[in-house]
Write a structure and sequence with these properties.
188 residues, mainly alpha, Arc Repressor Mutant, subunit A, 9 helices, rod-shaped
Length: 188
């Protein structure tokens, strides 16, 4: 690219003349698309990056300083950074999407509920009374941890510890899916 054309584009950008974008696209569009595509590795995403880059270039035209970098270097950096941001954004979004076909949640159905495990009161008696009292207050009486602490006159930290240990003891009696089902049935 000739230095004269580059100066002309910079002048047009400084003047906020829309012809600058047209000249930038005609002279740098393919190369900047290649930069974007190399980062995101997707045609549609690279096109989005290119469009966003041109918007940033237009909005930040006054930030360009020819003493710090050539025009192409400035354009390259904006496009590359936009592509990296777009890629990170896409990765973050896909990480947050719910993956219905890949689930760590147990598929609890009627077939996993065994009649011999439905009598939780009987099995609750197999653990120490101090844990029974806390589990009874929280699950059968529907108290919050703070309410159980106040009602039983037991510090909140002790309530939490006894809940954790009590559930661990019940886990020894029940398998994990059944225990989850039982707890859900107790609180609903």
């Amino acid at each position: 690219m000739s230095t004269l054309l580059e100066k002309h584009i910079v002048e047009l950008l400084a003047e906020r003349n829309e012809k600058a974008i047209s000249l930038l696209y005609d002279n740098y569009g393919d190369t900047l698309y290649g930069v974007a595509h190399k980062v995101v590795r997707d045609d549609a995403l690279a096109q989005d990056v290119l469009q966003e880059s041109f918007i940033k270039i237009w909005k930040n035209a006054d930030a360009y300083d020819s003493s710090k970098a050539k025009l192409f270097t400035w354009l390259f950096r904006i496009t590359r950074n936009t592509a990296i941001d777009k890629l990170r954004s896409a990765n973050t979004k896909s990480d947050k999407e719910i993956q219905i076909d890949v689930s760590d949640v147990y598929n609890l159905g009627v077939s996993t509920t065994r009649p011999e495990f439905l009598d939780i009161q009987e099995n609750l008696e197999k653990i120490e009374p101090k844990y029974q009292i806390v589990l009874d207050a929280l699950f059968f009486q529907g108290m919050t941890q703070q309410e159980a602490s106040d009602e039983l006159d037991i510090p909140l930290g002790t309530i939490k510890s006894r809940l954790k240990i009590g559930l661990r003891e019940l886990r020894k009696i029940y398998d994990a899916p059944t225990l989850v089902l039982l707890i859900l049935s107790m609180i609903s």
